[in-house]
Amino acid sequence: MTDVKRVKLPGVGVLHTFVTDSGGKIGVVAHRSGHSDLIAFDDEKGGPEATKVSLRLNEDEAHTLAELLGGTRITESLTALEAIPGLSIDWFSVDYDDHIAGQELGSLADRGVFGVTVVAVVRGDGANPAPAPDFRVFPGDTLIVAGTPEKVAKAFTFYRTGELTTKLKTDSIDLPGD
């Protein structure tokens, strides 16, 4: 099976790339808006001297191309997982100024965030599946987190700032005898 690299592009979508046996590089940027960009380079590095082609495909065209090429196992598997109602699988890239940088991963449940799991931590070319609470996180790591969209967002806020956001109802309540 071809080694496909997946990189989350914040605010854009996801980039999938692989290198062909002949030394070319193929990439697909799957935008959040539904369209895709197909990118091909004639060499692995895709540098300024490389011949490159870029085509914008709408969602229907991308599906048609995938069918013509026989579909992709990765896309089908991720789409099936992401289509489960109430499940969000997202990637958190750790920056130097993030609260979690240099810290142990810890347990989100110990901090009051239940129903969210760090599935793996990707570091360099390797992955650390089901990391223990004492796993130390460093800038450049990518945390793969699964849970409801709200809880994943809450975990990301904690990783970024060290704070947990909670919504408090501030409406007044009339008590008997008031």
Describe the structure.
The structure is a single chain. The chain has 178 residues and is of the alpha+beta class. The protein is built from three helices and nine strands. The protein has helices at 59-68, 73-82, 149-161, and strands at 5-9, 13-19, 25-31, 36-41, 52-57, 88-93, 116-123, 126-129, 142-147. The strands form two sheets. Strands 1-2-3-4-5 form a five-stranded antiparallel sheet. A four-stranded antiparallel sheet has the order 6-9-7-8, covered by helices on one side. Strand 7 (116-123) and strand 8 form a beta hairpin. The longest helix has 13 residues, at 149-161. The radius of gyration is 21 Å and the shape is globular.
Topology:
Elements: E1 5-9, E2 13-19, E3 25-31, E4 36-41, E5 52-57, H1 59-68, H2 73-82, E6 88-93, E7 116-123, E8 126-129, E9 142-147, H3 149-161
Antiparallel strand pairs: 1-2, 2-3, 3-4, 4-5, 6-9, 7-8, 7-9
Q: Uncertain spans, ≥5 residues at pLDDT below 50?
A: 167-175
The total strand number stands at: 9
What multimeric state do the chains show? Answer: single chain
| Beta-strand percentage range | 25-35%
Strand order in space, largest sheet: 1-2-3-4-5
Radius of gyration: 21 Å
Query: How far apart are the termini?
Result: 71 Å
**Percentage of residues in helical conformation:** 10-25%
Net shape: globular
Largest sheet: 5 strands, antiparallel
Helices and strands, in N-to-C order? EEEEEHHEEEEH
Average per-residue pLDDT, rounded, comes to 75
Total of helices: 3
Structural class, from secondary structure content? alpha+beta
